[in-house]
Amino acid sequence: MVVSRSPRIFFSMWKKITKRNVTVQMSMVSSRNFSRSPLPGNKQLDLQQNQLLRKYPQPVFESHPHLLKNGEVTPLIHKDEYKERRTKLMQKVSKQSDGSKANLVVVQSSSKVYMSGKIPYVFRQDSDFLYLTGCLEPDVALLMISAPGSDNFESIVFIPKIDSNTEVWEGPKADLEFCLNILGIEQANYFSQIAPFMCSFIKQNHLSGVHIWRDPGRSFQIVDDVISQKSGSIIARDIVPLLHSLRVIKSKSEQELMRRSCSIIASATIETMKMSQPSVCESQLWACVEYHSRMKGAQYLAYPPVVAGGDRANTIHYINNNQLINNGEMVLMDAGCQYYGYTSDMTRCWPINGKFTNSQAEAYEAVLDVQLDLIQFCNERPPLDILFQRMCRQLGKNLQQIGFGKNAKSCAERAQVGSRDSKKISELVKSKHLT
């Protein structure tokens, strides 16, 4: 390690590193002044990619051929698939309408959220908006319209006007060309035109009336104002149930993205197990699983993880993750990662010192047996309630075999043992000295 070297050697190395960094920076500065003369081979290609990186707000095939295929808006999802999703949604909307009224669907993106002043949190796109567009930009709205009794529809995306000063600080933003050519949406306009557009559409269909479909759980001031002004010819409808009924059925490309997300968190968890040792802090395990998730391709963790040592694992949503894990204790980690819009969610327990005690091994095997049984039982037929009931019965049976709920005789009583509330389970765990 550098810290173990003598000061003379260290400063000699530092001079070399500094000199190399200056050279790299000078190279980067000079490359911004794109030469007008043609460059041979890879140099010309590199400049073209740099120009594309400065043009688009998110990865595209031309700038990220290692990530995207031609026509894909996001990894594995082609713009035709996004269009198919919009089409299916409007077909559902048409069926839910009585056919005598026009339809206007509004789906908005997420907005930036700030932790302090001008310091933003990491931006996460709204899942419904991402599902329909593939757009990763904040403060964008998608409108889809159809005339009364018509199966045809139009999609229009509204984006903020480009602010050159913002681009200097934050990089390129979506423009109209990006929306039409990259996202594959039929029409594009600026955000300031949403209200006039909606008012015009409502006026054109004032005789028939208009169903405005939106998420009632999200505030959208522009839409709220239009609805309040034109309330006589408008019926507000909830788009969420229709949209989520589409999202619950996954395409082959979505299934592959989910597999990759699960594979990443599984591998990151194994790496975290490897670095576990007594007296490690829960926050260090958190850092380890996040580091390996990102290094393996995830954008970030899907949610604040639970990293709980010992009895803290009995607190279901424990996310303080700030305590030391003692020798002989078990650690529970509930973590997942996000991979281009698709998240994983995995919970695992292991002994912090790498060795199970007899009682720990008994409890672990009891739960593992239930998990393996349920995986074999999973298919497209049984609803989650049936799986839950099966889990309770099997868990109650296994717990009884290792000393819990000894007085339970019937299947129903054993199921009750398996479904005890967290406080009672905590007491049972403590009584068996399982940590």
Shape: globular
Helix content: 40-55%
Strand order of the biggest β-sheet:
8-7-6-3-9-10
Number of domains: 4
Mean pLDDT: 85
Total strand segments:
16
User: What fraction of residues sit in β-strands?
Assistant: 15-25%
CATH fourth-tier homologous superfamily of the largest domain: Creatinase/prolidase N-terminal domain
Number of helices: 15
Compute the separation of the termini in Å: 37 Å
Q: Specify the biggest β-sheet.
A: 6 strands, mixed
The structural class is alpha+beta
What is the CATH class designation of the largest domain? Alpha Beta
Secondary-structure arrangement, i.e. CATH architecture of the largest domain: 3-Layer(aba) Sandwich
Unreliable segments of 5+ consecutive residues: 1-39, 425-435
As a whole number of angstroms, the C-alpha radius of gyration is 28 Å
Q: In the CATH scheme, what's the topology name of the largest domain?
A: Creatine Amidinohydrolase, Chain A, domain 1
